Amino acid sequence: MKYISTRGQAPRLSFEDALLAGLASDGGLYVPESWPRLSDATLRSFIGADYATVAKAVLHPFMADDVSAERLSDIVDEAYACFNHPEVAPLVALEDGHYLLELFHGPTLAFKDVAMQLLARLMDDALTRRGQRATIIGATSGDTGGAAIEAFKGRAAVDIFILYPDGRVSDVQRKQMTTLKDANVHTLAVDGTFDDCQALVKAMFNDVSFRQDMSLAGVNSINWARVMAQTVYYFTAAAKLGAPDQPVAFSVPTGNFGDIFAGYVAAQMGLPVAHLMVATNVNDILARTMDSGVYQTGDVVATSSPSMDIQVSSNFERLLFELTGRDASRVRGYMDALTQSGRFEMAGDELTLMRALFGAARIDQQQTLDVMRQVKADHHMQIDPHSAIGVGAARQAVVADGVPIVSLATAHPAKFPKAVVEAYDEQPDTPQRVVDMLTLEENFIPVANKLADVQALIRAKAQA
Ligand SMILES: *Cc1c(COP(=O)(O)O)cnc(C)c1O
Questions:
Q1: CA–CA separation, 39 and 424 (whole Å)
Q2: For residue 464, is pLDDT > 70?
Q3: Which of 44, 108, 335, 421 has the most CB atoms around its CB within 10 Å?
Q4: Which domains does the chain have, with CATH numbers?
């Protein structure tokens, strides 16, 4: 399998080269040249299978030229052994036909561990075999950073630099990034928003000499391997509900569009996905785009679901590439318009195609609180605000009778104690390892929202 850029002007790469590159050199995102298809017999073999077994079958076609089945098997086993639940991603029932997929049993209590634990091992393995080092840089709205640091800490072949928006992540999120002592971990508190952090990371990748000098590698959800790893739980959840004979719908709390794009990929691979619900908070650029066909950035509003406080949804470019029939020059046109005027308008046929599979709902702060309380009242469990937005959106989804809908629970409530106390007037059930972490000393480097400052800092600290 080879990988091509959504903007059509970057070299075609192997899986491992795309893994290490992150963003394509033309500013586009890498996607597989074609979608591997799994047979119904393979999908049936997933019924009753454990998570790692499904992961190996789903993931290997994407990397078969570079990574042997045996090596992938070892990497997958190791990656998911660090989860705190034997099923890795258990499915629990809410009301009739509505299920919650718990993706927060990894080391940093958010779904990003699912991809990051795999990605870090794949990267370290590729670099070590090549005798190379890399400098990982990533922007985080809160959860990616901790998950990346946890996955890459102490790995021999990498230094990791994470940029987070100062004051805009929860205490737990920040401490998951700042309390580690590993020499290869560097946490940068940027005076700006998540979009600013993401723009800095993109600019560093677009600076060719910096990228080469530092051997930059990206771990944001623009990295294909992140999306790829996330396709797996769509298969495991659907298998538990009767796929491939039973179509299944999903509701996905969405920010950068990576997680929900993984659901689209699962559908392209042959999983009967009936509907994909884009669940957003008041930062609703994706819901507005679904309504109007106009993709227009606005100001970011801080909410109780900070990991979705995003106005530039990077992975949406991958869907655009698909909706245009993989027309890279069209995608380039849209992205140029976005850079120049902050907006672009999709063609009617692209919008029709998108609406055939996707729906969208915007859940505001009060609705988020209402859903959190109602789930507790009816099902005796706390959920976090991001997961509540998924649940709220699922209830607005239009799906055929008898089609179950799965809401992705993307974070553990203990990760957002302020929101939990506001909703429930009680503290979240916090795992002991998190309680212990909260008392550790913090280490981070404050930095201005200035490209030159950030680059100078990374040049000074990286070993690559
Ligand atoms: C990152 C994140 C999201 C959004 O996922 P995307 O792939 O960026 O759409 C939702 N919920 C939580 C808890 C997250 O950490």
A1: 45
A2: no
A3: 108
A4: 91-108+226-424 (3.40.50.1100)
